[in-house]
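[Q] Does anyone have a clean C-alpha cell version of this?
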Amino acid sequence: MSLFIFGIQPLYAQTTAGNAVYSFLQVPYTAKATALGGINISSLQKDLGLAMYNPALLHESMNGQIQVSVKPFFADIKQYDVNGAHLWENKNAIIGWGIHYMDYGNIMMTDMSGNDYGNMHPTDYALQLSAAANYIQNVTIGTTVKFIQSNYGIYKSSGVAADIALLYSPYSNLSQASIVVKNLGTQLGNTQLKQELPFNIILGWTKKLANAPFSFSITAERLSVWNNAYYDPVFSQQENITAPSKGQNLFNHLIIGSEIYMGEQVNINFGYNFMRRYDLNIQNQQNWFNGFSTGLDLNMGRAKLQYGTAFFQRNLYHHFTIAYALKRN
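[A] Here you go.
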C-alpha cells in the first residue's frame, strides 16, 4: 500500500539537523514514551502507544485495545492522541490506527505594522493506519501510512508519509532489537517548493536481566546525519558558543531508558535524552535535571494508566495516558 502511494511522486527526506515541516510528528505519542526519554522502539512491554510510533511493536495481545493520551504543554498548547488495534485473523496480522493532534490555542494575527486582524486557531494532525505481521520466525515486519495536515490561519499544508520497521525478538524473551525508518514522504500540492519531512532512522535495543525485575534500553536516532545539533556559526560566534565536539555529536544521537517492574501492577520508567540536554543547557541556563524523564504504569486488569514527565529548564510537562481492553485476550 505504501509503495503505491509514494511511487507516484518523489520522496523528500530530512537530511540536515535544521527545521522540517510537520515537526509535531517527532513528539512522544504516549506517556510511556515520554517517561523513557521521548523515543523507545524496543520495549519488551506490549504497549499500544509505543506501537503507534514503531508499527513492528504491534502484537496480537493488543487486539481490541483503545488508548487515549493528553499532554498539556505551555501557553495553552495541548496534544491529544487516540489509538486502537484489531487482530486481522484471516491474514495473521494486527492492524493499528491512530489520530495524532496538536492544538495551539488562539493566536493573534497581525501584519508587519502591528495591525490586529483577529485571532487564528492553528492545529496540526496526522491520521495513521499501521499493520504488522510475523511471517518470519522471531521477526516482525511493520508499516504505517499517514495523512498529515497543518492549518495555520490562511495557510494550510497537507502531506503523506510512511514508516517501515523490523523487530527481532529471540526465543528467550529477554531482549528485543528494532530498526525504524520514519517519515518517508512528501508534501502534497502543485508547488515545487516542497519542504523536507522530519526523516529519521532509529535503532533500538532492550535487554531484561533474567533474575532481576528491570530492563535497560538504548536508542540511537537521526542516524542519517552526523551533526545532530542545529549550529549557526554566525550566531554562535556572537554568543561565544562553541560547536559540538565529536564526542558530543556521538552522544547526541542516544537515548537511554530503564523500566523497573514492581510486581504485575506497577512499572516505574526512567529516561535520559542526550540531545535534549544539549539543546536546553544553553549559556547561563543550565539545569541539572535537563534531559531526564520519569513516569509510571498502573495495570488494573483491563484498564491501564500511564504518567510521564520530563524536565525543561525549571519546568515540567505532564503526559497522561489511559488504555482499555474492549476484549479479553
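[Q] Thanks! Anything notable?
[A] The chain has one domain: 2-325.
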